[in-house]
Amino acid sequence: MESTEDYVELIDDLIRTQGEARLVDLAERLGVSQPTAGKTVARLQRDGFVTSEPYRSIFLTERGKSLADAARERHDLVYRFLLAIGVSQDTAERDSEGVEHHVSEETLQAFQRIINSSDKA
Amino acid sequence: MESTEDYVELIDDLIRTQGEARLVDLAERLGVSQPTAGKTVARLQRDGFVTSEPYRSIFLTERGKSLADAARERHDLVYRFLLAIGVSQDTAERDSEGVEHHVSEETLQAFQRIINSSDKA
DNA sequence: GCCTGAATTTAGCCATGGCTCATCTTATAC
DNA sequence: GTATAAGATGAGCCATGGCTAAATTCAGGC
Ligand SMILES: [Mn+2]
Ligand SMILES: [Mn+2]
Ligand SMILES: [Mn+2]
Ligand SMILES: [Mn+2]
Predict the structure, then answer these.
(1) Quick one: B83 and B51 in the same domain?
(2) Is it the case that residue B83 has pLDDT exceeding 80?
């Protein structure tokens, strides 16, 4: 699921930057209502990506953490790639949010090569 | 909707290559059951992208045709771009099918520049 | 002209991902 | 200690996009 990746990535991000991941912040950052975020988190828990108890903040399981790490890595690479080929920061942010979910390892490697050669230049 | 684009693009394709777009071919090419394809075509009709009468083949409206054209153009450009940066044909086919729906005009232009310069080289 | 098999439609189910409105907890300010 | 406001849940709705099983229509072969 695409949204699974976006959620765990954001949960990880919130834990890093805010110390904890609250539903209200997930909802705000994702532009979604709190009940929607809640339902999705329930699914994430059912599928073993997070743990959460009523009225408490959300934690990633091992499984959630590795998915989050992989997702962030991919997201960052796509973002840096877009910048490297001359796309504006705003557009790179928007497009990478979608494209990240559809690029294979092989394509990511090609992106990496482009980044490398534009670094050198 | 992503699937709207995929459907009209494929309908256009079938009309070009097969002379007409039948539900059974849509379903087969999209890897989906016939009832699923049928329901989606009903939505396309409701939204003014196609016309269809019971048990007959499917036609694009003006609106459907221009969406199909735009979608194919974008799809092709993404595909050619992936080839240009060294991705294999198979992967380029798979990845372009997803990526096409998430690239802005600005990113497409950057892709085009890369294609151009690799053509020259 | 009818039989039969392929194509289509109908009915009914499910999961995901959205929403609003209402209710319930919890933490904090006083 | 309690009132209150913020945060979280619950209930109930909807659209999209998937499926299977069953019924219907249509076209080609005989
Ligand atoms: Mn992401
Ligand atoms: Mn994303
Ligand atoms: Mn396409
Ligand atoms: Mn596609």
Answers:
(1) no
(2) yes
- Residues A41 and A74 grouped into a single domain: no
pLDDT for A33 beyond 80: yes
Domain enclosing residue A93, as ranges? 70-120
Q: What is the pLDDT of residues A75-110, one digit of tens each?
A: 999 999 999 999 999 999 999 999 999 999 999 999
CB of B116 less than 8 A from some CB of A: no
CATH of the domain at A50: 1.10.10.10
Tens digit of each residue's pLDDT (9 = 90 or more) over B29-59? 999 999 999 999 999 999 999 999 999 999 9
What CATH number did the domain enclosing A97 receive?
1.10.60.10
Say if residue B61 is in the same domain as residue B6. Answer: yes
- Give the number of other CB atoms < 10 A from CB of residue A81: 25
Report the C-alpha gap between B68 and B7 in whole angstroms.
8
A103 in the Ramachandran plot: left (φ > 0), alpha (ψ -120 to 50) or beta? Answer: beta
Q: Which residues does B106 contact at the CB level (< 8 Å), separation at least 6?
A: A87, A88, A91
Torsion sign over Cα A6, A12, A17, A23: positive
Give me the pLDDT at residue B119, please. 81
Residues 82-101 of A with CB under 8 A from B: 82, 85-88, 91, 94-95, 97-99, 101
Domains in chain B, number:
2
